[in-house]
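Aim 2 progress update. The chain analyzed this quarter is reproduced below.
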Amino acid sequence: MRQPRLSSIVERRLLVNYRVTPSAAARLLPEPLRPQLVHGYAVAGICLLRLGGVRPAWAPRAFGLRSENAAHRFAVEWDGPDGVETGVYIPRRDTASRLNVWAGGRVFPGEHGRADFEVRETPDQVHAAFATRDGDTRVDVCVELSDELRGSELFADLAEASRFFRGGAKGFSATASGRHLDGMEFHTDAWHVEAGRVRSAASSFFDDPERFPSGSATLDCALVMRNVPASWRPLPTMAANQVGQLAN
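Predicted structure tokens:
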């Protein structure tokens, strides 16, 4: 089946970011991917994403769907035909939508697990939590919007952080087969993010000492995107030697 380009509105995209030792990140990445380093650190995090108006690009807006979604991600680089390329590796995607679970990896790239979400938002704060139905992953974060990025050891300011994450438009997701990665590219002509201050954050993924020994993953910063039109373009799959169960 030919996978369509999708149109959507990013109603809310919350990026909660960790700085990670390169060795801890590298052991969780499949070949040929390697950590993309910033000031000597790997960059990883959680994307908590509410999409509205999701539909094939040719379909009227009235047919668009809405869903809560989450992705764990690592900033990565790899050697492409024209030199080094950058993007993100996604060891797991989760969603509240039964349709996304069914369609992911079939109608559009990216296999999804099922999760239950609890989200509370105001203009100045986002509190998002989810638990996966398989019992493997739980996340609970609360972020307040801020006028500037403070306390980050990865980025000097919001502009630097914005440039970095805008460069990670290509995402490659783990698949159950373990033989390839599904690819999807994010595009918007209206890119805009705001700084966030993390009030609290708990993640069974990043708090797991088997994945991340003590001191190897540290909460760094948060960014928020709201009400941005965006499209999603399927990419050719990437052959990969995937890592084991620690990344699942």
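The chain has one domain: 6-247. Residues 6-247 form a domain with the Acetoacetate decarboxylase-like fold (CATH 2.40.400.10). These observations will guide the mutagenesis experiments scheduled for the next reporting period.
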